[in-house]
Amino acid sequence: MDYKKTKAAPSTISRDLDVLTHETGNIYETVMILAKRANQISSELKEELNQKLQEFASYTDNLEEIFENREQIEISKFYERLPKPTLIAFEELKEGEIYHRNPTRENKKRI
């Protein structure tokens, strides 16, 4: 998914609890789903950022090059301005883009 084009708010805003309970019927289950998805998003963003910054990796100890590398600074600032992974996960939940299942509920229905 392209997180750069997400409609998530860049800052934290108050949320309606009915939105959280609508999908699962349990606010705690929904929060756990959001937490797991936010961790996935965070690791994907971190991996993407590390790949982009790897291009600028310097194996010399020249401090002047480190401070003058504007491209690296701009890439880092861009990723800092992206919405937080929890906000992206919440937006995905609102739009119905998160697939989740609860195996314990499925087992109870079969019995």
Count the beta strands.
0
What is the overall shape? Answer: elongated
Protein structure class: mainly alpha
User: What value does the Rg take, in angstroms?
Assistant: 19 Å
Largest sheet: none
H and E string: HHHHHH
Mean pLDDT: 79
- Helix count? 6
Distance between the termini: 38 Å
Q: In percent terms, what proportion of residues is strand?
A: under 5%
Low-confidence stretches: none
Overall helicity = 55-70%
Q: What does this protein look like?
A:
It is a single chain. This protein is an all-alpha fold. The protein contains six helices and no strands. Helix 2 runs antiparallel to helix 4 and helix 2 packs across helix 5. The radius of gyration is 19 Å and the shape is elongated.
In short:
With 111 residues, this protein is mainly alpha-helical. It is 65% helix and 0% strand.
